[in-house]
């Protein structure tokens, strides 16, 4: 295919009608996920590999986009679908829904990115009152035919016609109760035939129309329903959670049906080529005899482990193992596979690169390198900073006294503690009130997504590692225990009964361990993660399971450090944090906030300095502060010896160092009413009134404070210079950098720099030491970014303060807006993510890019860094790499994440350049 002539790409000036909207499975491949969605592209790939895939075709995401934009399907779509359906009918030797020997199809969604259970699927399309008789005759099994028909009406009614799904579930439960059975497989053909009649009456009563008997109408309505499900509430919520773009649309896969509900020699299952929870190689997955695919992921019947398939159907098992090896070697990754066995014949229904836990991601990446399937650069693309952050969370203390009440399947690791809740609404409500909750269900379904997001962890009494709860939890990095069968969950009475008869009521504390599957009463204490212990230097790679994970993390970090260009520094204000940061791999301090050094006992000295009426008072305060500041810097330089330490001069709003005006007013009023002496308080109140600001964040702070209060900045510069000289004379290697905050114009920087240079020269002369202290500034105001070329004339480095830059670009006060309307903005899709969490590339990012370019045009050797919270955000780190910054700086615990993402950024940008 030539670069600009793909038939599926609408070129400029090309009409929609000329675009190809439907592809047979034989026409696509795995690289067409944008067009065919992940499911369609991978069905095509498996077809190309010669694997047993039921014939079918895919309607493209382009068709979905046209439908969503216009409200109508493309004019050419119906004819294309008809042509492909006719070709499918010829290949299968039967027609869709014909009375005597019907062709049945499934209609399934399939977006570019996996969205498990978030969009719609309808199976058994083509069944009707007439064709169900033909299917029964063809299969020689009345029960199978009527079971398939009731499934169609149930799925179609809920998905396409909007009938409340619980109405069908209640009718099915009533049928089982009448028969005195517990599972649907124990219902006989006559029972299912009655259930079909009841289901059809439900549809008529709820929709005002009969269940459609025309098979083509069924298929067309199902296709539209899948298109519509792209904009369903749960799909939009999932995309926001996973940061999937909203404009991609979904493909629709129409596939000839194969049946796992034809008896004990049939079944359906989900398999993984490696354990998605641990990454270990082996036989992992679930199998369910006499069932259709949705039964497995819905968790409505408990499955058996995939390994048991070897005893049930060894021929199919051996074939499946061979196919799994083929797919893993082909995709070079963990594969998630859906399959059906129809009377002893294996069919492949789907494969995709499987979601995995954070620990599994690191283990699998290193395993694949060792197997020679991928190289180090590719391995880095298989893990990410968010996963590494998960691995640094604490785990339960196994030595603590605990009361274990159950054990399920370890579906997604982590240590979660919270109050028991039994429905999604309560989970969200309590979470918003600040409560930590554990969502407990028999099984989850896509409608539970809100509650799953809000909860600390998820616990279900049914389902396995491939159930909806497990798959979605792993994707979100949420702790999950599934299939804890010994726990009796009663969602209507909001309680769970555990072995021995103890009842867990809603609101009771429980703890769940997603790594072991154990469930405990009460709150279990936690201990540090082995990964944190590794970064702290207290654990080294070894042989047991915890150390195996540490070994994988160690190797991936080594890969990242070899590949990355960005250096990683720490935001640290004292020697303790600096030493921890160094252990975590920091290559210096990118931000030392000196205002943090003035809290506690020193606050009074700063208060006296700010309120001083005379030069003598001011000098006295400065003289008292100087040795304290110098001691701080000596300790920092010792901790970070040989590495750069960027020290920001005093920056905070003035009110942080002044008494609270309301509290002070009350004190003065009380003293007056009691006729007590209050001259000092009154004088202080008058000064506070004089200095009071309506908006302190935009008032007398940063460089403005240094210019207005004589001697403040020069005292700090002297303390830095004297500490550096003392350390150098002690044979150390201090590398201090002085950063001037909140500069908006080069003149501010020039004045402060002139004074600073003079002080440094005095210290050099007095100590006989050459210091070479770099002086630079923070770029945290739009004007500073827009005039960066001028400011660079007086600055040796820029550090982007993206917290304040985001506030001033957006006009947001972070402390106020995050609590007031950010939730609404996220829900309405105005934000995909908070601009304080991930940098706003279009707005704030444009200023960073502009300032970096202008600064280096003035001063080619200008050092560029970032010290806002974005410095530790994975997505933002990639942006800073692309812009050409020299380093990012973040809090000590985010340093490993930044190191990993800096390596990934180097690899992905190199790959983009190569492509």
UniProtKB/TrEMBL annotation:
Domain PEP-utilising enzyme mobile: 435-517
Catalysed reactions listed for this entry: pyruvate + phosphate + ATP = phosphoenolpyruvate + AMP + diphosphate + H(+)
Enzyme Commission code: 2.7.9.1
Record GO terms (molecular function): pyruvate, phosphate dikinase activity
Enzyme superclass (EC): transferase
InterPro entries: ATP_grasp_subdomain_1 (IPR013815), PEP-util_enz_mobile_dom (IPR008279), PEP_util_AS (IPR018274), PEP_util_C (IPR000121), Phosphohistidine_dom_sf (IPR036637), PPDK_AMP/ATP-bd (IPR002192), Pyruvate_phosphate_dikinase (IPR010121), Pyrv/PenolPyrv_kinase-like_dom (IPR015813)
Pfam family, one: PEP-utilizers_C
Protein origin, superkingdom: Bacteria
SUPFAM superfamilies per record: Glutathione synthetase ATP-binding domain-like, Phosphoenolpyruvate/pyruvate domain, Phosphohistidine domain
Family as reported in the entry's similarity comment: Belongs to the PEP-utilizing enzyme family.
The protein's name: Pyruvate, phosphate dikinase
Organism placement in taxonomy: Bacteria, Bacillati, Actinomycetota, Actinomycetes, Kitasatosporales
Gene: ppdK
């Amino acid at each position: 295919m030539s670069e600009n002539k793909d038939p599926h790409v609408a070129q400029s000036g090309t009409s929609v009608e000329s675009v190809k909207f439907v592809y047979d499975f034989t026409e696509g491949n795995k690289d067409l996920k944008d067009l065919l969605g992940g499911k369609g592209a991978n069905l095509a790939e498996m077809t190309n590999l010669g694997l047993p895939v039921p014939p079918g075709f895919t309607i493209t995401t382009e068709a979905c986009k046209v439908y969503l934009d216009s409200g109508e399907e493309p004019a050419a779509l119906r004819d294309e679908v008809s042509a492909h359906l006719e070709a499918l009918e010829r290949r299968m030797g039967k027609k869709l829904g014909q009375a005597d020997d019907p062709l049945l199809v499934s209609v399934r969604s399939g977006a570019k990115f996996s969205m498990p259970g978030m969009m719609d699927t309808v199976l058994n399309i083509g069944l009707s009152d007439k064709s169900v008789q033909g299917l029964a005759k063809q299969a020689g099994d009345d029960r199978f035919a009527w079971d398939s028909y009731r499934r169609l009406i149930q799925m179609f009614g809920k998905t396409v016609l909007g009938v409340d799904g619980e109405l069908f579930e209640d009718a099915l439960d009533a049928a089982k109760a009448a028969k005195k059975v517990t599972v649907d497989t124990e219902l006989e053909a006559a029972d299912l035939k009655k259930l079909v009649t009841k289901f059809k009456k439900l549809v008529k009563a709820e929709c005002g129309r009969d269940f459609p008997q025309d098979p083509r109408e069924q298929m067309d309505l199902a296709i539209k329903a899948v298109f519509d499900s792209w904009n369903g509430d749960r799909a939009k919520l999932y995309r926001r959670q996973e940061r999937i773009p909203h404009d991609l649309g979904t493909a629709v896969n129409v596939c000839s049906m194969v049946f796992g509900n034809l008896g004990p020699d049939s079944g359906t299952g989900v398999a993984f080529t490696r354990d998605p929870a641990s990454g270990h190689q082996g036989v992992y997955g679930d199998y369910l005899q006499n069932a259709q695919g949705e039964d497995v992921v819905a968790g409505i019947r408990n499955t058996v482990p995939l390994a048991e398939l070897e005893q049930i159907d060894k021929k199919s098992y051996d074939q499946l193992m061979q196919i799994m090896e083929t797919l893993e070697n082909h995709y070079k990754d963990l594969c998630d596979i859906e399959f059906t066995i129809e009377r002893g014949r294996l069919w492949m229904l789907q494969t995709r690169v499987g979601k995995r836990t954070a620990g599994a991601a690191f283990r699998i990446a290193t395993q694949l390198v060792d197997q020679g399937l991928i190289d180090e650069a590719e391995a880095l693309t298989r893990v990410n900073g968010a996963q590494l952050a998960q691995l640094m969370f604490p785990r339960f203390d196994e030595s603590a006294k605990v009361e274990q009440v159950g054990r399920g399947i370890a579906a997604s690791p982590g240590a979660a503690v919270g109050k028991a809740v039994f429905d999604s609404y309560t989970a969200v409500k309590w979470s918003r009130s600040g409560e930590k909750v554990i969502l407990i269900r028999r099984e989850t379904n896509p409608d539970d997504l809100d509650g799953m997001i809000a909860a600390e962890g998820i616990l279900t009494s049914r389902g396995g590692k491939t159930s909806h709860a497990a798959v979605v939890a792993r994707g979100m990095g949420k702790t999950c225990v599934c299939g804890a069968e010994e726990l009796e969950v009663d969602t209507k009475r909001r309680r769970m009964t555990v072995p021995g008869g103890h009842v867990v009521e809603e609101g009771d504390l429980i703890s769940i361990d997603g790594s072991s599957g154990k469930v405990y009463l009460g709150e279990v204490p936690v201990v540090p993660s082995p990964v944190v212990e590794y970064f702290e230097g207290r654990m080294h790679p070894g042989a047991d399971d915890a150390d195996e994970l540490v070994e994988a993390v160690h190797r991936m970090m080594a890969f990242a450090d070899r590949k990355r260009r960005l250096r990683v520094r720490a935001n640290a204000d004292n020697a303790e944090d600096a030493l921890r940061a160094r252990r975590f791999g920091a290559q210096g301090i990118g931000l030392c906030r000196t205002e943090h050094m003035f809290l506690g006992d020193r606050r009074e000295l700063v208060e006296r300095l700010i309120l001083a009426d005379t030069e003598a008072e001011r000098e006295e305060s400065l003289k008292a502060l100087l040795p304290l500041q110098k001691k701080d810097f000596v300790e920092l330089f010792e901790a970070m010896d040989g590495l750069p330490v960027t020290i920001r001069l005093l920056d905070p709003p003035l009110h942080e160092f002044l008494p609270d005006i309301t509290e002070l007013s009350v004190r003065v009023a009380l003293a007056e009413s009691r006729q007590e002496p209050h001259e000092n308080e009154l004088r202080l109140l008058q000064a506070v009134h004089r200095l009071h600001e309506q908006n302190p964040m935009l008032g007398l702070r940063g460089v403005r404070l240094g210019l207005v209060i004589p001697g403040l900045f020069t005292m700090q510069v002297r303390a830095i210079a004297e500490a550096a000289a003392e350390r150098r004379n002690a044979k150390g290697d201090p590398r201090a950098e002085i950063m001037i905050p909140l500069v908006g114009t080069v003149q501010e920087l020039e004045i402060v720099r002139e004074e600073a240079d003079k002080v440094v020269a005095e210290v050099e002369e007095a100590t006989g030491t050459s210091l070479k202290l770099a002086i630079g500034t923070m770029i945290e105001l739009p004007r500073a970014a827009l005039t960066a070329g001028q400011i660079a004339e007086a600055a040796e480095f820029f550090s982007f303060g993206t917290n304040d830059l985001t506030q001033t670009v957006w006009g947001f006060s972070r402390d106020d807006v995050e609590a007031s309307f950010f939730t609404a903005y996220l829900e309405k899709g105005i934000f995909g993510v908070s601009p304080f969490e991930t940098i706003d590339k279009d707005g704030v990012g444009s200023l960073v890019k502009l300032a970096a370019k202008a600064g280096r045009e003035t001063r080619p050797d200008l050092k560029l860094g970032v010290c806002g919270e974005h410095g530790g955000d994975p997505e933002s780190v990639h942006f800073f790499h692309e812009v050409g910054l020299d380093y990012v700086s973040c809090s000590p615990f985010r340093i490993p994440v930044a190191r990993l993402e800096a390596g990934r950024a180097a690899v992905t940008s190199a790959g983009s350049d190569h492509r």
